[in-house]
Amino acid sequence: LTAESVRLSWALAFLRGASPLGWEGAIYLFNMCLPQLFEIKVFKEKNRSWFINESVQSGGLLHFATPMDPLFLLLHYLIKADKESFQGKFQPLDQVVMDDMFPDCILLLKLPELETLLRHVTEEKEIDKKKYYKYSKEKTLKWLEKKVNQTMAALKTNKVNVSARVQSTAFFSGGQVSSDKDEDYVRYAHGLISDYIPKELSDDLSKYLKLPEPPASVQNPPSKKAKLSDEPVKAKEDYTKFNSKDFKTVKKNSKMTAAQKALAKVDKSGMKSIDSFFGAKHVKKK
Amino acid sequence: MENSYEESIDKRRVHLRPDTLRDPAPVSLHLLPCEVPVNRPTPVGRFFTPAIRLGPDGLEASFRGRSLRGEEVVVPPGFVGYVMTEEKAEVLVGKQNDHEREEQELVEPPEALERDFDRFMGATASFSSFTVWGLESIPGPDAKLRGALSWPSLAAAIHAQVPED
């Protein structure tokens, strides 16, 4: 170990632990230099292994570190604080972003352009050169609508490359043969975004976007799970129900509480998510 | 106690040694269509690789007497593949955004992020493509893996900043 490697090792840290988004064992990668937040997703398929040079590695996991909009995490704290303690009052950010379960959340406060970011979802006030913030649902919905639109555009672009898959594996909800209807794109984009926001807000967003009630066969829009694997459900609190499965990476082997067991039994038929994007074959409903 | 055990897991950070991302050696990677339940050195170059042939529909090889068909898959544009090794020798395959290669010039860290109970990992190798194998036939366009590989482009859209009004 050289002195330099010790010094450099501070530069990046994987932050793991229960995430504010409700994914137990979600992993974030925080780049201390930029600083920038990344989200790590794990691709896992049954019966896979790697040959890595002259060795074999079971599991066949593939991790993806993709840039993440920190506002999704911040938003969670803002909403929670607004609901639980501050109720419409302006608060300094360091009193909002606090989390026993995920103490590393304070790193979020180091992000550059934090103030610009927060303008999308909060109202701010400056008193004695200190900024105070208040969650604004109206602004947040507007912001989310833009997110949905921009995700929709990417879906359309992507469709060019993936049209075969779109047709065959329920890229869109419910295994219906996809159509070019914008509605399908909006719903799917809404589902993807919903993986990052509390359930309640997701419902509000759905109304805000005037998403029609999904047809009976598609009762649950593609939003429910942030899981890429077949791990059992380990949801923790109510709002996490929609994220009812967790990431594969952090095996916690913890015993499930009765409530968690109950959750594990929640009927997930018809639920679709990012998961289906990762190609799980939901072809049963035609 | 169950609780404190959980907590210690939760609070542990895994630090990635950025210097290891600089120029790890390229690695030869094969994603097999079967679970080999061990992690250990194995003479891939003696038994597997020499048997790979280019057939009419892609690469052909065999493993434990079963016939495999495979093809080369490239890492999504803008990304680099890394094989990560944790200091206690667990191997992960990671992909990091290209950006991360740029910010190696670290100024002073804002604070000591390392704690005693933290863990560390570093890249031991890098890759820009790997070979994915299917049993008897090449994993088709519907393969889960294909979907996963297009996740970065979708993630980019979900997480890109939106313009202010």
Automatic annotation (TrEMBL), chain A:
Residues 72-205 form the Ribonuclease H2 subunit B wHTH domain. GO terms for biological process: RNA catabolic process. Signal peptide: none annotated. It comes from the Eukaryota. It is found in: Nucleus. Keywords: Nucleus. InterPro entries: RNase_H2_suB, RNase_H2_suB_wHTH, Rnh202_N. Residues 25-69 form the Rnh202 triple barrel domain. It holds the Pfam family Ydr279_N. Residues 213-232 are annotated as: Disordered. Its main location: nucleus. GO terms for cellular component: nucleoplasm; ribonuclease H2 complex. Belongs to the RNase H2 subunit B family. The RNase H2 complex is a heterotrimer composed of the catalytic subunit RNASEH2A and the non-catalytic subunits RNASEH2B and RNASEH2C. Non catalytic subunit of RNase H2, an endonuclease that specifically degrades the RNA of RNA:DNA hybrids. Participates in DNA replication, possibly by mediating the removal of lagging-strand Okazaki fragment RNA primers during DNA replication. Mediates the excision of single ribonucleotides from DNA:RNA duplexes. PANTHER family: RIBONUCLEASE H2 SUBUNIT B. This is Ribonuclease H2 subunit B. It comes from Muntiacus muntjak.
TrEMBL record, chain B:
CDD domains: RNase_H2-C. InterPro entries: RNase_H2_subunit_C (IPR052863), RNase_H2_suC (IPR013924). It holds the Pfam family RNase_H2_suC. It comes from the Eukaryota. GO terms for cellular component: ribonuclease H2 complex. GO terms for biological process: RNA catabolic process. Signal peptide: none annotated. This is Uncharacterized protein.
